[in-house]
Amino acid sequence: MKKLGKKAGKAASMKKAGHRAAGKAASMKKAGHGTLGKAAVLANKAAQEKKADVPGEWLYLAPETVGVRQIADVLEGTCEMEIWQEAGVLEIMYGGEASMDMEEGKIHPRDQVTAAFAEEHDCDRVYLVTFSAEEYEKVLPVMRHILQECGGIFCGDTEDFKPILTE
Questions:
Q1: How much is the pTM?
Q2: Residue 54: partners with Cβ closer than 8 Å, 6 or more residues away
């Protein structure tokens, strides 16, 4: 076995343990590699906060006449869909593997807050809407199209119903 000096021995053992050589890290930092500029850090932080504000579960409160068939009809030609009309379920594919699922439901009789909110907006039907929060920007045009053609509102399935999207 080759004998190493004290410094070389320590560097070799640190490298074995998965640590980078301090000299290389320092020289890369000096050269500006591996560090983000202040603007990039702030932009990244703002994007993460925005994603954190977007829930993955929403409610679509709709007028009584709006069923899954009507929603599917207004989206015809804009995206791929699968509909299970008897079950009140619509799966909307808007890009690759990404999808938004809408499932007709009922407001629980004890949920007076949601019932009052729906009544305030003249909505008699409720759909549970789910999609990945990271896909919000992609699903937003689909939600807006449904609102324009069918009415109603989309709102977060949260205590304060926020965010709220209307026509």
A1: 0.68
A2: 133, 136, 163
